[in-house]
Model the fold of this input.
Amino acid sequence: MAKELTSPKQLAVRDSLDLYVREIRKVSVLSREEESRLAKLWFEKRDRDAGQLLVISNLRFVVKIAREYAKYGFRLGDLIQEGNLGLLHAVDRFDPRKGYRLISYAVWWIRAYIQAFILRSWSMVRMGTTRIQRRIISGLYKARRKIAAFSAAEAPQQKLLAEALDVSENDLRETVSRIQMRDVSLDAPVPHREEGSFGDSLPDHSPDAETQLVDRDLRNQVREKLDAVYDDLSPRERYLLEHRLMSDVPVTLEAAGHHFGVTRERVRQIEERLKGKLRVQLSGAMA
Done:
């Protein structure tokens, strides 16, 4: 069986990352009372020690979230670094007067920073736009290694890859061609022209300053409305808001029912009640 070799540099990176994860796991998770005390110190007095402890005690959650995105071929260390920036941003903006836990608020900023990093690093031309393409992209690297190990380290055949990923060969070929596309700089000159670049030929569809201002104001209103309604939600409704309605990978009704210890139909009823509350609360922001 073929065995992949790991370079000394890769070993060093992996060892340092393992050490980092072990160290942050030694930091205890703050109780609600202690977190509230520290958050008020940071919010009201900008106490550096309080702010630092709020960040350090939540680093483990960044690692957990970053692992969700590592399957797309990005280095876990890079994703953790971006997630940590999101955590710092969240701590800076966190308002303890709202009554909810820091991580419930920070998770959105952590994901936003990681997703922004992925979009910067991986051209949209190469991103899968369908469910099948995303499945191919996320499983392609693992499937290639597995098949190569059982075929004397030869390049895996298209048919074997398609079978391993449970997709058609046509879908596989189309997605691989997307991955292999090369980006072209907008500053590159247009062939057979003396002047002008590719960027000069692209229409400008960006909104004007007035539209951007209106959109920003609307987003701020929506965020304020969500913050206001969050305090009035039950624990089950908060869970569904975070893990179903606003999650990139929403849990199923069955999984939520198992978490609550109730039936799938009961979860659906709770979710409908939650949607009703959100519609009432957000109607003013959308008016």
